Amino acid sequence: MVLLKKIPLKTSLVFILVLMTLSFIYYQHMKDIIIQNQMDRMLLLYNSVRMSLEQSATGEKFVEDLIGQNLRTAAIAAKFKLDPDIGNIDNQELVELSRQLGVNHITLFQRTADDIVGVRSSDPKDLNVSSKGWDTIYKVFHQLFDLQDVDVGMGQALPHYWSSPFDTATSNPESVNKWGYYYDGTTNYIINPFVHNTDFRTYQSLTGIEDAIRRLTKENEHIGLDISVLNSDKLMNRQHLGLNPTPSNWYSERLVLFGKYRYKSPDDKEFGQKALETKNTVFYTTISEGKQVFKSLTPIHGDYIKYNAAGTPPLIEISYDYTEIQQLLQKQFSNTLLFMLICIGISLAIIASIFILYNRNKELAVQDVQDAYAGDIETLFQSIREQRHDFINHIQTINAFLTLKQYEELHSYTKTLVDEIRVVNDLVNINNPPLIALFQAKLTQAESKQIRFEYAFSQMEKVKLSPVKATDIVRLLSNLIDNAFDASMELNPENRFIRVEGEVVHHQLQLKVMNRGNPIAPDIQGKIFQPGFTSKQNGKNSGLGLHIVRQLVERYHGSIQLKSENGITEFSISIPLKGVL
Question: Which PANTHER family match (predicted)?
């Protein structure tokens, strides 16, 4: 508790506030780094998925084209097996033909007045099915019946033939098939053999994008990873207008093309649109399945995306359980808080130590001043006791003059007494006990040497609160006055004169000591402050006085100047009183 009381409260609060601010900035910086690292990981995963798509696209296209060519071969073989007139064909015949040709089913489509309908089929579900709602395929049927080259911007086009990508059957949404359509004008129907995607999906699962997504998901299952390729049109609820819109149950209308889309959120539509507009990855945090999820959506562009007839890029969706990021942030926050508390503790200890040392030095300085004042005051009291003794003697003498009626002698005696009292009053006005004691002694010394001694001081009470010790001021003036005494003694008594001035101006203590005497030669002025140097020939001077003066002035970061000309030598001292006035 004693240590805490010694700590400066305001300084400590400011320091703690600055430290907390720096810690908060550091925490925010680390938070940004952690999130950026997570974003980089998601981008790496996106690139892995994209590369898997690109690499598997060529192989998948080759396999699909190979299946498409086999379907064309099966259709040509069926043409030679079947009667050119659909009226002479029954469904059982198509069942047997499908088995012989190695396809799952065969359907025969015939043009009517306003539609193209499945009239015969080995699959009962395809009987009497209308193709009017099949936008792209309905257009293909008309081009085939008109013996035109098929051109719909997708699928596999060969002479008198077109094969669609694997897609969902209208008659059976649970089944994904690949169809081939053949017509060369020798029959009154389109031959449509098709196979289920069982083998192709197995190929995709083992070597394609599904396998890549499965592996990446398993490698990151500890953070609840979700990777999927989404149909952006379906995500945006966007419908492409056409004469014959594609049925919603077709594979090309499915939301999830590859992977698993478990963490759905209403925000996906907004950020998906932003990703498509900017053509860049967007990152965002959302709530899904009751948990906070960090997600990214990235559009992918490329001809290898088969289920994209409308031209809108699919989106790769990657989701992270935000718990991992929160755990990292919590750990970072705990480390930052611990670091801040340790720094605050160390800082407070340092501040307390500095403050204690400062107070201790201050107390020592105050003690030194008090000791100096105590000695000076004791000297002053001794002087007062002496003056009291003298005062009694003066009263007795005055009384004797009155008794003897020697009025002229009384007048002369009291005049001398008044001059002495005036001197004492001037000393008291200095308002600095050490200086009063110094000048009382120097006045007596000057009188004995027949030197006219003057002094003038103002605002010296301000020096009491400064770090400048009273004893050092006395040492400065004593050495300079003693030098002035020595220089004055070289003159006749009537020419001997010394003046001492002191004042505080603009936070500066300024002292001057001037005297009449022989000037100091310029070549000697640069040497007189050196220890042991003296220009006196009597051997009584040690040459240390001015050296001591310069050391004291430098200790207080002050300055001293010497000017000696026209019979007047002047020492001027300036000492800063830093921030105490």
Answer: SENSOR HISTIDINE KINASE DCUS (PTHR43547:SF10), TWO-COMPONENT HISTIDINE KINASE (PTHR43547)
Determine the straight-line distance between the first and last CA of the chain, rounded to whole angstroms: 33
* C-beta separation of 178 from 70 below 8 A: no
108 close to 117: Cβ distance less than 8 angstroms = no
pLDDT digits (tens, 9 = 90+) for 534-553: 766 554 555 678 888 888 89
Element (H, E) at 97: helix 91-101
Beta-bridge mates of residue 117: 110, 130
Tokens of 74: 């099966």
Q: If you write DSSP's letter for every residue of 515-540 in order, what string do you get? A: EESSPPPHHHHTTTTSTT----SSS-
Domains, in order of start, for the chain: 62-203 (3.30.450), 430-576 (3.30.565.10)
CA-to-CA distance for 320 and 220, rounded, in angstroms? 9
> 15-24, 321-330, 466-475, 532-541: which has the minimum mean pLDDT?
532-541
Would you tell me how many other CB atoms lie within 10 Å of the CB of residue 18? 11
111: nearest Cα among 190, 193, 180: 190
Q: How far apart are CA 248 and CA 261, in angstroms?
A: 19
Q: Which two tokens stand for residue 50?
A: 């994209």
100, with CB counted inside 10 A (0-12, 13-18, 19+), is: exposed
At residue 88, the pLDDT reads 92
Q: Mean pLDDT, to the nearest integer, of 236-256?
A: 58
Are 49 and 316 spatial neighbours (Cβ–Cβ below 8 Å)? Answer: yes
Nearest to 105 by CA among 10, 200, 178: 178
| CB proximity list for 117: less than 8 A, separation 6 or greater | 109, 110, 128, 129, 130, 131
Structure tokens at 109: 């489509």
Can you tell me which residue has the tokens 């009597």?
A: 538
* Element housing 499 (H / E): strand 497-505
Residue from 485, 473, 497, 492 nearest 540 by CA: 485
H or E stretch including 232?
A: helix 232-235
DSSP 130: B
Q: Is 251 exposed, middle or buried (0-12, 13-18, 19+ CB in 10 A)?
A: buried
Distance CA 234, CA 246 (A): 12
575 forms beta bridges with 509
Confidence at residue 511, expressed as pLDDT on a 0 to 100 scale = 92
Query: What are the structure tokens assigned to 134, written together?
Result: 């099949």
Chain-wide mean pLDDT for the chain? Answer: 77
Please identify which residue in the block is written with the tokens 């007045």: 113
CA-based nearest residue to 42, from 328, 265, 295: 295
Q: What does the alpha-carbon distance between residue 467 and residue 579 come to, in Å, rounded to a whole number?
A: 10
